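4.2 Preliminary Data

To establish feasibility before requesting continued support, the project team ran the inverse folding procedure on a target of 341 residues. The structure was first converted into the token representation described in Section 3, and no sequence information of any kind was made available to the design step. The complete token record follows.
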């Protein structure tokens, strides 16, 4: 049986052997490297991966971007993302030209704010490839309680605006789904879980956000075109299947032409013979070596917030957010590794 992987023409076949072996074992790349490798004829799952972009990446999508999906933030509550209109214009033009199949515009839910209405104002008239996503987050307990009624109302409004309830989707981690949005009326959702593929899917889940730019899953991409590493999502399946799930039609042909499935063979891994240590050479005078740069990292603990971490290390939360490419500086994950300097 032919083996297929869908990969971005920008990113190429990133770490393709690691992708292949890890996808087959369901393990991380590091774990996969320590396990027996499958036979060359074993199948590989197709996937579609895409980035989430916002002002925190500092640059908008390039007009030349070619990929199955562009996703970008329009607003956080009543605060409009400063790159929203630029990203929307680029995405609209790319989808109408057939370079992009799906445009996902997301807003961050905030109680008491009609963030969906603000998104509609930012985007203007919808187009055929547009999908709206509600980003649901507790912000370390700042938002609590069951908000299903309000969230479902915003989702229903977006579905009517776009012409199909399937084109209004949601996003959260497992805890926030359970606490803030337990009743989702069958909405399609993306689950945030970094570094490993989730074994227990939440109701309505069709995709997973697998990295915030600092985690690796199966060698999938962590950056796109001109932007630094950022949030990325993956749908395991074909582009046609994803278009059907989201109720989007009209551009699969041109984009599939740009991103053809690729048949690959997994080569057997050759185990090298033990290295023979060379005899030490007599050096008359050793040159002084440059002192290596030592980076300092901090692992996030329960209750940590970025401003307190910054104060502890004599810096600012803005510098840490920029250094770590944090899209949401207020959202940290326990055991997340932060680069301090």
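Position-by-position output of the design step:
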């Amino acid at each position: 049986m032919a083996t297929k992987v869908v990969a971005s023409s920008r990113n190429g076949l990133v770490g393709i052997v690691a992708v292949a072996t890890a996808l087959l074992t369901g393990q991380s790349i590091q774990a996969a490297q320590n396990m027996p490798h499958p036979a060359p004829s074993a199948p590989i799952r197709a996937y579609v991966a895409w980035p989430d972009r916002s002002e925190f990446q500092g640059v908008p999508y390039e007009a030349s971007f070619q990929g199955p999906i562009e996703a970008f933030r329009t607003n956080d509550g009543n605060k409009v993302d400063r790159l929203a209109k630029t990203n929307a214009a680029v995405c609209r033009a790319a989808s109408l030209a057939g370079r992009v199949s799906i445009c996902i515009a997301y807003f961050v839910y905030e109680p008491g704010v009609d963030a969906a209405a603000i998104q509609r104002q930012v985007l203007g008239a919808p187009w055929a490839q547009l999908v709206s996503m509600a980003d649901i987050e507790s912000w370390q307990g700042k938002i609590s309680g069951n908000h299903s009624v309000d969230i479902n109302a915003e989702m229903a409004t977006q579905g009517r605006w776009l012409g199909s309830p399937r084109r209004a989707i949601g996003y959260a981690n497992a805890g926030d789904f359970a606490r803030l949005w337990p009743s989702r009326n069958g909405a399609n959702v993306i689950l945030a879980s970094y570094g490993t593929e989730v074994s227990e899917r939440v109701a309505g889940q069709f995709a997973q956000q697998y990295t915030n730019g600092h985690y690796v899953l199966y060698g999938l991409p962590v950056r796109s075109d001109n932007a630094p590493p950022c949030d990325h999502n993956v749908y395991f399946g074909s582009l046609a299947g994803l278009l059907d799930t989201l109720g989007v039609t009209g551009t699969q042909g041109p984009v599939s032409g740009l991103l053809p499935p690729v048949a690959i063979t997994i080569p057997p891994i050759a185990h090298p013979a033990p290295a023979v240590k060379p005899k030490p050479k007599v050096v008359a005078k050793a040159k002084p070596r440059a002192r290596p740069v030592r980076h300092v990292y901090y692992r996030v603990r329960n209750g940590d917030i970025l401003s307190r971490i910054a104060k502890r290390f004599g810096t600012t939360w803005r510098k840490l957010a920029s250094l770590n490419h944090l899209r949401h500086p207020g959202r940290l994950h326990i055991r997340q590794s932060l680069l301090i300097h």
